[in-house]
Amino acid sequence: MRMRPTLSWTPTEDLPPGTTDLAPVTDALSAGGVLVLSGAGISTESGIPDYRGEGGSLGRHTPMTYQDFTASARARRRYWARSHLGWRTFGRARPNAGHRAVAAFEREGLLSGVITQNVDGLHQSAGSEDVVELHGSLARVVCLSCGAVSSRRELAERLEEANAGFEPVAAGINPDGDADLSDEQVGGFRVMACVVCDGILKPDVVFFGESVPAQRVEQCRQKVREATSLLVLGSSLTVMSGLRFVRQAAQAGTPVLIVNRDPTRGDQHALTRVELPLGTALTAVADHLGVLIDD
């Protein structure tokens, strides 16, 4: 029987309580060399929901797995119909104060880089340049047969043309760009094939149940080795893809600081966890450091 990926986490031990004291975060950034690890929580203020926070989408939605996507044409039709609708929302999303603060810290030379678990591209839109997209990007599409990479906007135009009049009302949008639609709403949605080899197209993101490419993992591990501290922003650290970097930092004696409204799977390894909205927290830190955030 195929195992389902880990989608949720429940604390099994007493974790240190959260705080509103931003001094440790301010001190770490003032020292420089900070590596940021961001999760879905940093994008909620841009209108993109997270998976596990208050009102998180896992309460109503199970993300598509790589195994289901590759095994079933019906699953691919359902995914692309829902993702096509969700892409319209992602295309309208704009960076919020949290993204802009991270970009400002980078411009001031306070960061050693950004690792993001998000696939929305909002860090780059805010001006961050040294960004590793751990789980890929919805802005790209890859062919599973020939490996050709193409633009998601280009695919969206093809899908619009092939599915004229497709205007269902979604119950919600999820962090992976997947809209909540019923099977009836999906209907006979037409899926597009690769223009190079007629192969199966997949968004260039790491699905649940799929492994992050080893080279990308090693790139992130090297960034953790070089960082003076690790600042986690808006991630529950439920999945190992992000938690492993927190564990690596802690084992090396590199301070870990977390800003997240809810407890995380990495709290036991952290110097502190700040329970504040990310936009509020990072703006306050920037003000204290005299770092200007672009509007």
Commentary on this structure:
By secondary structure, the protein is an alpha/beta fold. The chain contains 10 helices and 9 strands. It has helices spanning 23-31, 66-71, 73-92, 97-107, 122-126, 152-162, 183-186, 214-226, 240-251, 278-289; strands spanning 34-38, 111-116, 131-133, 136-143, 149-151, 201-205, 229-233, 256-259, 272-274. A 6-stranded parallel beta sheet has the order 3-2-1-7-8-9, sandwiched between helices. Strands 5-4-6 form a 3-stranded antiparallel beta sheet. α9 (240-251) links the parallel β7 (229-233) and β8 (256-259). The longest helix has 20 residues, at 73-92. The N and C termini lie far apart (51 Å). The model is unreliable at 1-5 and 55-60 (pLDDT under 50).
Written as H for each helix and E for each strand, in order along the chain, the element string is HEHHHEHEEEHHEHEHEEH
Whole-angstrom Rg: 19 Å
Instruction: Name the structural class.
Output: alpha/beta
Mean pLDDT: 89
Q: What is the 3D shape?
A: elongated
Strand runs, count: 9
Which strands sit side by side, in order, in the main sheet? 3-2-1-7-8-9
Helix residue percentage: 25-40%
Model regions low in confidence, pLDDT < 50 over at least 5 residues: 1-5, 55-60
Biggest sheet record? 6 strands, parallel
Which band does the percent of strand residues land in?
Answer: 5-15%
Distance between the termini: 51 Å
> Tally the helices: what do you get?
10
Keywords:
295 residues; alpha/beta; six-stranded parallel beta sheet; three-stranded antiparallel beta sheet; 10 helices; disordered N terminus
